[in-house]
Structure formats: C-alpha cells, structure tokens
Write a structure and sequence with these properties.
cell inner membrane; MetI-like fold; 71% helix; transmembrane helix; membrane; transport; globular; UgpAE/MalFG_permease
C-alpha cells in the first residue's frame, strides 16, 4: 500500500477549518456566552446589566422549584433510558432470531426514528388526550379515568412513553448489530453443553453486548436530558404543578418566557456540568465492567 505524505502543514488545518468554524460558532461561543451571562443580572427591559457573581447559582441551589426540577429530570431520564433500551433489546432479540422477513421488520421498526420530536409529542398527545384519545377511552372501559392535564404522575407517564418511543428505533439498530456480531458458534457450544435460552442470553449475549449497551447508556441519558425539549413543549409544557418541568425546559421557560436571562444561563451551566459529570462517571467506573 502506497503512503501519501502532504508536506504542506497548513493543508490539514484548511481541511478542518469548516468543522472547526461550526464547532466554534454553534458550540463553543454559545457555551462561553452562557457562562458569562450566568454571572450577570438584567432588568425587566434588558437595558441594564449588573454583575452579581455567583448570586444566580446560589439562588438556584436554594430554590424549591429548581430542586424539584432536578428530581423530575432524574426520574424522567432514568425512566426513558430503561424503557427505550429495554424494549429495543427485546425487539432486537426477536428480529435477530428471524430468518425470513428480517429486513422488513427492521425497516418498519426504524421508521419512528425519522419522526421529529415535536411530531412525536403531538402524536402521543392525541393518543392520550382525555377527550378524544384512544388510550383514555380504553382505560375508561375498565373504570380508570385518565387525565394527564391534572395528574403529574400521568403526565410523566405520557412524556416518558413519547420520548422512549422516539428513541427505541435508534437503540434497536445498535442492539441488532451487536447481536449479529456475536459468533453463532458460542451459542451453539453453550446449547450443546445444556444451557437453555435464558442461560445463554444472560451468560453469553448480555456480556458480549456490554460495549453496545455502555455506548447506548451514555447516548440515551444525554438524549433524555437535552433532546426531549420538543416532546415536553408539545405535550405538557412542564405541567401540571411542575410535574414534568425537566431542566432543559426550565432553562427555556425562565429565559425566554420569564425573561430571567441570568438565572436561565446559570441553569444551562448547571445542566452542562451535570451531563459532563455523568459522562465522566460512566466512562470512569461503568466502562471498567465492559468486556470488549
């Protein structure tokens, strides 16, 4: 194989320049602006700015609403991650065992990923609508009165289902690829030794899927904490009684609706630190149990 060497040291930077520019303009610059804004406070009309130091952060840590939003976000992120990954693994195992029509089922299961989060939220809002929704109608037949508009637990159930449904297709693709990469000889050898399907699944399949599972764990937590804004906005708008007001939606609501830019910026900094901390913990401790 012939190796090509570029003597021009400027060429690699020129090739990277478009991506570096996009990263700076859309990621680094907004992050720097948020950090700067978190130490400031503006008046109601946005004409006067005052440096307040860490006062915005101190107020957040002493705010019952913000602490409630932290708790709601934790419940929401864990629920979405477990539900989406669990169902995706179940579907991937079912499709992996098929010999005929495997591609057809794979295509059908991937389609929901093409749906925009806002559209997914509206779709499930109609399905769970207390007046016209099919699910409340079916629940009413067995004597249960569904009304997520006034029940925080039911509202949380709605947004978790909508968010997980949107992510199942993504998880399914990776789980299916991971399952198909496992040598069939390992399962056959275990079957010859007398291991049943359940034993083979937990002793062979799950350990060999650990790299895929670890990757999806990181991706799904980030997805639940950032990319679910549109689902919340189109279904519950953080209600009722702040029952679905996750951190990313509270950042938007306090900043763009409440016009409290300093608090909103401080919340975005906190959210960024939380995600970075969770990611570091996952790579620092959980990755050690992954068998590559």
């Amino acid at each position: 194989m012939k190796r090509t060497i570029f003597n021009n040291k400027l060429l690699p930077w020129l090739l990277l320049a478009p991506q570096l520019a996009i990263t700076f303009v859309f990621f680094l610059w907004p992050a720097a602006q948020a950090i700067r804004q978190s130490f400031l406070r503006q008046d109601a009309f946005g004409t006067r700015t005052t440096f307040v130091g860490v006062e915005n952060f101190r107020r957040l840590l002493n705010s019952p609403e913000y602490l409630n939003s932290l708790q709601v976000t934790a419940i929401f992120a864990i629920s979405v991650t477990i539900l989406s990954m669990g169902l995706a693994l179940l579907l991937a195992v079912a499709v992996d065992r098929m010999i005929k029509a495997q591609r057809v089922y794979t295509t059908l299961l991937v389609w929901p990923y093409a749906v925009a989060p806002a559209v997914a939220g509206i779709l499930w809002w109609f399905i769970f609508n207390p007046t016209i929704g099919i699910i409340p109608y079916m629940l009413a037949q067995v004597g249960y009165n569904w009304n997520h508009v006034g029940n925080p637990a039911e509202a949380m159930t709605l947004v978790v289902i909508a968010s997980a449904w949107k992510q199942i297709s993504y998880n399914f693709l990776f789980f299916l690829a991971g399952l198909q990469a496992i040598p069939a000889s390992l399962r056959e050898a275990a079957a010859i030794d007398g291991a049943g399907p359940v034993r083979r699944f937990f002793d062979i399949t799950i350990p060999l899927l650990s790299p895929t599972t670890f990757f999806l764990l990181v991706v799904n937590i980030v997805y639940a904490m950032f990319d679910t804004f549109a689902v919340i906005d189109t279904t519950t708008r953080g209600g009722p009684a702040q029952g679905t007001n996750i951190l990313v939606y509270k950042v938007y609501f306090d900043g763009f609706v409440g016009q409290n830019m300093g608090s909103s910026a401080a919340q975005s900094v906190f959210l960024m630190l939380i995600v970075i901390t969770l990611t570091v913990i996952q790579f620092r401790y959980i990755e050690k149990k992954v068998a590559y």
